[in-house]
Structure prediction request, 156 residues.
Amino acid sequence: MSYDLSVERRIDAPPSRVWQIMTDRTTEWWCPKPWTTTIDKLEWRPGAAFHLIMRGPNGEADCQSEDSVGGVLLEFEPGRRFAFTDAFSAGWKPQTPFMVGIFEIESDGDGTLYRGTARHWTHEAMEKHRAMGFEQGWGAVAEQLAGLAEAVPADA
Prediction:
């Protein structure tokens, strides 16, 4: 059984542009504004550390911890998808997992279909994430990504 929450959004920009923004401008779309993201560790390859720090408008860290989005990059398919999990910390030390995050894009006519999925180990974890505002938060992130990609002139 799968315990997934997903958000989809069509973006009026080619997949190559959307991918470039997803990977090169991560801090500009990763969390809903007015929250901000800084990169602690991020190397785009499977097995690499993946630690992003999200801060609220008053400087407070995400509700979980200072390294609120951290773990290991599981998969990296350039131009298509990346996935990470928080089930491990640095040095492959197991920790209590919350989810696997999967971000993927595919061609959709002259645009791009974006999908963000949070896959959870249990129904309870999925419902906790939903109650935390998954749809609103990940929907806002999809809108921010679309705004960045669609703002680039067509000939860029």
